[in-house]
Amino acid sequence: MNSLTKLWVTLSTFLVPTSEEKDKGAGIVEYAAILILVAAIAVGIWALGIPDQIRQAIGSSVDQILQGPAE
Q: Where, by residue number, does the polypeptide cross the bilayer (predicted)?
């Protein structure tokens, strides 16, 4: 085994992450990114007026149910 191969083997044992290092879960950056994404979606839905449309549709449906069948 030449010296370059020995050096490569030595360095690769330090550079390859162990299974414990690979499986440590999400960090604060990932959680912050998800929180920002959810907030952006909520703001977009609110800006488009979708909650008002849903409220009007539900109110209209409830009114139709309470009025009974059309004669």
A: 31-50
Q: In sequence order, which residues have a C-beta less than 8 Å from that of residue 45 and are 6 or more positions away?
A: 51
Contacts of 51 (CB under 8 A, 6+ apart): 45
Contact 51, 45 (CB under 8 A): yes
Block means of pLDDT (10 residues each) for the chain, 71 residues, are 79 70 76 96 93 94 86 62
Residue 54's identity, in one-letter code, is I
Residue 57 CA: distances (Å) to CA of 9, 28, 50: 67, 40, 10
CA 8 to chain centre: 39
- Per-residue tokens: 20: 């414990």
Neighbouring residues of 63: CB distance < 8 A, sequence distance ≥ 6:
none
